[in-house]
């Protein structure tokens, strides 16, 4: 069932009062508007005041004004109050859509507030999302011909094993022919600290995700559609972020799932949900995963939980990250190649600041004239199987390719030394 049908049946449940309560915003609106005015946002304040009184065109105008401020320069230079201004406008817009029975539009506005807005109204956005999502699901359930979507059979993204010899032809040259990343089962925290964390050595950890609900749920397209199909998510379209045709889009999760299902691995329009904090945005999915105990090694703190979800053939080009990283493979398989931080100069990082953690070397199409020594560099690699976790030490360069439809979670954490 399409998400647009949610709006057609907007008042199907009958028990809803048609109001999204926003007690925090109601109490803090004057203070927030004062701060926005102090940053020159007088026109915004005027539109936001009209929006609060029920003017949907004013709500749209306020959202556009805040959007322009968010895109007036580098993200880190945006004055924080304008992020809160964007969230406020999204809440006003969502309340008006919700009151009109336009549930999908209300949820989209709230999602945009979560994705692009500030932290001040985050709890308010999440509470509103919870109520709107409950109503959306009840409408979908009530209108389903078979008595509810929960009765639908599973549609599995990955249902069969891959032939390694067949997929190897798509991998970078020399793949799976050098040193393999070691795999360990029942790895104790003490052994992880001693043998990998302190020494900076990658490892694949087996049998540490069996208790995750995601292990049994995320391979089912119908489950993901039921839980999050009407939510809006940011996706990447194109081979990878270093390619000129690469772009970003905002689409519903249902549309994204359909693109994965129908994806051609050779398409330049491959769609990938990459390095997105999906679990901050969609809390139902957050409940399906557990932060590994290994991530508390070193006495540091969790920096981010990111989702990586896409069809076979999606590639994250060779790059490095500043934090300790555990990449947990929930659905499908990935090929991962790793180079130690000591080889950074030989991997030719981009000179631009924004891309300085990415290599100029395209492992899928190596220019041996420009980079003649690349094939002589030592690396480790592996096929990361479903249910396995890969520990990637800070600054280690890594290239990742999905061999099947793949849903992974990366956990970044910093050590106390940082």
UniProtKB/TrEMBL annotation:
Gene Ontology MF: a single term: DNA-binding transcription factor activity
Choose any GO biological process term that the UniProt entry carries and state it: temperature compensation of the circadian clock
Keyword Phosphoprotein tagged: no
Protein name (record) = Lysine-specific demethylase jmj30
InterPro entries associated with the record: ARM_KDM8_N, Cupin_8, JmjC_dom
Which cofactor(s) are needed, names only?
Fe(2+)
Q: Which organism is it from?
A: Nicotiana attenuata (Coyote tobacco)
Family in the record: Belongs to the JARID1 histone demethylase family.
Q: Respond yes or no to whether keyword Isomerase is given for this record.
A: no
Please give the start and end residues of each transmembrane region.
none
Q: Which gene encodes it?
A: JMJ30
Task: Identify one Gene Ontology CC term for this UniProt entry.
Answer: nucleus
Q: Which residues form the signal peptide?
A: none
Q: Where is the JmjC domain?
A: 280-418
Q: Which UniProt keywords apply?
A: Dioxygenase, Iron, Metal-binding, Nucleus, Oxidoreductase
Q: Where in the cell is it found?
A: Nucleus
């Amino acid at each position: 069932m399409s998400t647009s049908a949610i709006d057609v049946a907007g008042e199907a449940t009958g028990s809803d009062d048609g109001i999204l309560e926003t007690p925090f915003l109601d109490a803090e609106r004057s203070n927030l508007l004062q701060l926005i005015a102090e940053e020159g946002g007088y026109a915004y304040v005027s539109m936001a005041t009209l929006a609060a009184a029920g003017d949907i065109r004013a709500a749209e105008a306020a959202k556009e004004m805040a959007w322009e401020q968010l895109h007036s320069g580098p993200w880190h230079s945006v004055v924080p109050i304008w992020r809160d201004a964007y969230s406020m406008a999204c809440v006003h817009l969502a309340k008006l859509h919700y009151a009109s029975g336009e549930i999908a539009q209300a949820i989209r506005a709230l999602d945009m507030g979560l994705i692009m807005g500030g932290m001040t109204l985050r709890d308010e956005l999440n509470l509103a999302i919870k109520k709107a999502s409950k109503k959306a699901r009840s409408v979908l359930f009530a209108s389903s011909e078979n008595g509810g979507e929960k009765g639908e059979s599973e549609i599995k993204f990955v249902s069969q094993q891959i032939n390694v010899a067949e997929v190897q032809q798509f991998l970078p040259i020399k793949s799976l022919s050098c040193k393999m990343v070691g795999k360990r089962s029942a790895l104790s925290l003490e052994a992880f600290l001693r043998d990998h964390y302190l020494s900076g050595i990658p490892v694949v950890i087996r049998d540490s995700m069996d208790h995750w609900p995601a292990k049994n749920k995320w391979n089912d397209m119908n489950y993901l559609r039921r839980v999050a199909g009407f939510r809006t998510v940011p996706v990447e379209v194109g081979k990878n972020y270093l390619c000129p045709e690469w772009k970003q889009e905002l689409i519903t999760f249902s549309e994204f799932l359909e693109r994965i299902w129908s994806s051609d691995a050779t398409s330049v329009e491959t769609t990938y949900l990459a390095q997105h904090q999906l679990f901050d945005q969609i809390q139902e999915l957050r409940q399906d995963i557990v932060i590994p105990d290994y991530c508390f090694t070193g006495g540091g703190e969790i920096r981010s939980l990111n989702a990586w979800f896409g069809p076979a053939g999606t590639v994250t080009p060779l790059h490095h990250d500043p934090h300790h990283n555990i990449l947990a493979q929930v659905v499908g398989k990935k090929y991962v190649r790793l180079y130690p931080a000591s080889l950074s100069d030989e991997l030719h990082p981009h000179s631009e600041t924004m891309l300085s953690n990415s290599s100029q070397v395209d492992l899928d199409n190596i220019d041996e004239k420009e980079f003649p020594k690349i094939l002589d560099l030592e690396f480790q690699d592996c096929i990361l199987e479903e249910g396995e976790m890969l520990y990637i030490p800070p600054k280690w360069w890594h290239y990742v390719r999905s061999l099947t439809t793949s849903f992974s979670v990366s956990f970044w954490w910093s050590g106390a030394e940082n």
